[in-house]
Every structure is written in structure tokens, then in C-alpha cells.
Amino acid sequence: MQIVNRIDPLRQAVEALRSDGPVALVPTMGALHDGHLTLVREARRQAAHVVVSIFVNPRQFGANEDLSSYPRPFERDCELLRGEGVSLLWNPDGEAMYPPGYATNVSVSGVSETLCGAARPGHFDGVATVVCKLFNQVRPDMALFGEKDWQQLAVIRRMARDLDLSFPKADAIHGVATVREADGLAMSSRNAYLTAEERAAAAVLPRAMDTAIAAVQAGTALDDAIAALKQAVIAGGFASVDYAEFADADLASDPVRTWRETCAAAGCGADRQGTFDRQQGGLALLTVFVICLGSGHGQTTGRRSVFRTPALLEGIGAGVPHWGVRPL
Questions:
Q1: Are residues 45 and 133 in the same domain?
Q2: How far apart are CA 189 and CA 156, in angstroms?
Q3: Is the pLDDT of residue 166 over 80?
Q4: What average pLDDT does range 185-199 have in this prediction?
Q5: Among the four 81, 104, 121, 205, which has the fewest Cβ within 10 Å?
Q6: Same domain, yes or no: 115 and 235
Q7: Parallel/antiparallel/unpaired status of strands 261-270 and 49-54
Q8: Please, which pLDDT band fits residue 261 given cuts at 50, 70 and 90?
Q9: What is the pLDDT of residues 119-149, one digit of tens each?
């Protein structure tokens, strides 16, 4: 596996790889777990070569979030990637990604402004900016992202469509089902922040989502199902629920109330950590985001959850972004 940290050598290396066939990019911030490695395995299945990027992007962290403490086990990550047959690791430093005088920001209106975007102003601008740069640096034929963060995936696809990106094209930006722990909690680098008590309490989230899916499939009104979900999450040890709403499944339109195309969103009070969940099942499209927000130890980190239902019931997502949950 080649390890590259400067643009010119990167482009030379990628062009050499491309002579063998398609190149896939898996962007990460490191601290890899089996969810990331699942993306790598799917990328290897679809492409001749896999490029993984590791860059802890400061522009997607808000004030008092966990930028300084975000785990960076670089040597361990390298060993994992070598074991998966990754061809190239792109590991730029801050100056290579944002050189002195850097002044450009990529902002995706609409889809980035609701749900997590409303709770974390500027977060998705940071995501869109760094991903656009990674696409231009690596110029992959395809890119793979976890469905754990459904809103992030929607932002990136919208950016690629709006900017007419060719490497990769929007339809070559693939979502991959989230990998779960044995108790249903989505794998995430930030799960390491949870105490044993918090980790046990966090498992209530996917269980509550399973129950909400089943209730809607049985005819329960969406509002009632979400209310029951919030009650179950709080009873399971979360401190509070910050919001709940329905939105179109592409996250781009105003809230709606139609069963055929809805997603629901909810937020939970939090301290240092959170979970993101996405599950599928049922007759129609239902995506539930549970976003846990709060502050503790001078930081705001967090947890959110999404589930979606167009097919048979099937566990899919969960993980931990940067807000916070406070299991009691």
C-alpha cells in the first residue's frame, strides 16, 4: 500500500492505478472500525483499486466539539487497510488540504440546512468542502459512503449533481449499509467515548426504532409512532428529546405528513457521545433521524439516528457523529 501526503505524487499514483481499471475512493477520518472496512470491501468488489483517505477535517467540527480529542490511531489504521488490500492511502496534513490563504467554501443549500444541519451550523459546509476537494484531488471513478449518515450522503450527492462533477459522477456515489454491533448499535469511531453504562443505554435506540417501524407498518400514525419512540429512548436512559419532525426522504423539501414519502426526525439531549441509526423495512419510505444534542466536559458531541423503510425489515445503520448523548 502506498502512503501519499502531497497532491502531485497522489495524482501520479492514481493515474498509474487507473491504467488497470476503475479507482474507488473511501473517504474517512481514520479510527477505522469494521464499518469502514465494509466500505473498503465493497469498493474492492466494484473497482480495480481502492484509495482510502484519512483526514480529520477541522472545518466540519463546531466550537467545543471533539477535534482535538478525536482518535488518531494511524499505524493501526494502516495495518487494517493493508490487510484489506487497499492500493493507496491519501493522508494529507492540514496545510496540504487547506494551504495558507485558502478562502473557498462549498455550501449546499436546502438539504444541509435542516435536521443535523440546523443543530450544527456550518457542519455540512465543512463536509461538502472537504469531500469536493477529495474528489478533485483523487478523481475517483466512484466513491463509497456509509448510509449511517444519510443526510451527509444526500448533501454529497446534491453537491455532485449541482456542480456537474465527473470524478465521480453523482450516480457513482454509492451508499453502503451501516454495520452494527451485536446489540444493534451502529459501529462508530466515537463509540469509544461512551462509558460502559452509556454504551449499554445506547442500545435502546435501535430497539426503539425497530418498534416504531413495526408500529407504522401495523397502521399507527406517524406522529404517534415518533412520540412512542421518544418516550422509549428517554425511558432507556437518554436525558431528553430536542425535536421531532417529518421531512421528504430526499431531505430537500418542507415537512410533510404523507406516509408514502416521509422521513421523521427527532433529537435527544446528550453529553459526550451519540448514535446514528438507519434501518429499512415496510411498504413505503420512512426515514427516522434521532439526533442527540447536549454538552458536557466543555464539549458538545452527539448522536443521531436514521431509519428508512422501502423494503422488508432489515437492520442497516447506526453510528456516532459529533453532538452528544447523556444516558442517565
A1: yes
A2: 21
A3: yes
A4: 78
A5: 104
A6: no
A7: unpaired
A8: very low
A9: 778 999 999 999 999 999 999 999 999 987 8
* β-strands 241-247, 285-294 pairing: unpaired
pLDDT-based confidence at residue 243 (cuts at 50, 70, 90): low
Same domain, 255 and 168: no
Q: Is residue 158 part of a domain?
A: yes
Q: Within a domain: residue 321?
A: no
Domain containing residue 164? 2-176
Q: Which residue has the cell 449518515?
A: 149
Cβ(210)–Cβ(178) under 8 Å?
no
Q: Tell me, rounded to whole angstroms, the distance of Cα 27 from its chain centroid.
A: 11
**Number of Cβ within a 10 Å radius of residue 177:** 18
Domain-terminating residue out of 152, 176, 200: 176
pLDDT higher for 92 or 302? 92
* More confident position, 294 or 257: 257
Q: Which has the higher per-residue pLDDT, 34 or 185?
A: 34
Catalytic residues: 36
Kindly state whether residues 70 and 194 are assigned to the same domain.
no
Same domain, 117 and 193: no
d(C-alpha 297, C-alpha 295), whole Å: 7
Mean pLDDT of all residues in the chain?
76
The CA distances from residue 282 to 168, 306, 310, 318, in Å, are 32, 15, 6, 19
The grid cell for 103 is 478562502
- Cis bond leading into 168, ω under 30°? yes
3-state secondary structure of 318: coil
Distance CA 80, CA 66 (A): 24
Q: How many domains does the chain have?
A: 2
CB of 305 closer than 8 Å to CB of 276: yes
Q: What is the pLDDT, as a whole number, of residue 69?
A: 85
Does 94 score more than 70 pLDDT? yes
DSSP states of 22-49: -EEEEEE-S---HHHHHHHHHHHHH-SE
